[in-house]
Amino acid sequence: MPLSGWILLQVLSIELKHVLAVQDLPLHHSDPFDRLLIAQARVENAQLVTADGQIEQYADQVNVLW
Fold first, then answer.
1. Which residue among 12, 33, 40, 51 is buried most deeply as judged by most CB within 10 Å?
2. Distance spanning both ends of the chain, measured CA to CA
3. Residue 30 contacts by C-beta under 8 Å, 6 or more apart in sequence?
4. What pTM value is reported for the model?
5. Angle at the Cα of 37 from the Cα atoms of 31 and 42, rounded to 5 degrees
6. Cβ neighbours of residue 44 under 8 Å, at least 6 residues apart?
7. Which residues are paired to 46 by β-bridges?
8. 47: β partners
């Protein structure tokens, strides 16, 4: 069956490269876990799906959907 029209989700493990990438982010958001998600999406060139309006401040760093 073709996957046309489907959204594919992948669960990612937290790796050292994701943790280290947090230090390169501007301090728009103070929540450390959200910052880790942003860094992870940036490193993996992945789209971050969230309803958190503060994360939109990172739109120049990561592709945010919602």
1. 40
2. 27
3. none
4. 0.83
5. 125
6. 12, 18
7. none
8. 63
